[in-house]
Amino acid sequence: MPSRLTTVAKNSMLFVAGYVGTQALLLVPICLAFKLPLKSLSVPIAMLLGCAVLGAATFQWARSESAPAESRAWRFAFAVSLQIFLVISVLTYSAVLVGISSAFAALSYMAAPTFISTLIGAVYCYQWMKRKETAT
After folding, report:
1. Which among 8, 81, 92, 99 would be 20 to 30 A from 60, CA to CA?
2. pTM
């Protein structure tokens, strides 16, 4: 039977690998559409990789079996909120960094949707985890 550390490491690696693969599938068409060299996306890619590592850590923390069910629901809502906020923030900053958007436009048009989507994601995930925990 694998140890807890092995299971956590395997789950984290699967999360990061899936995350990086998805981001690569999204970034390649963007590079082609805006005729951006891949080298100009090295900083955004590094920041997205940081989001993946942080996301893996927070989701593992949220899944901690030693915490009570109510606490796991709150933790999962926090992890999802943090991940949504970080990814949208990194993508917005990256758009400004590579010249696709101006800083004014990014702040004007992305601040409210970022806050609203983070809030909606947190409420939904909390309710989902609460139902899942009470069903078992």
Report:
1. 92
2. 0.77
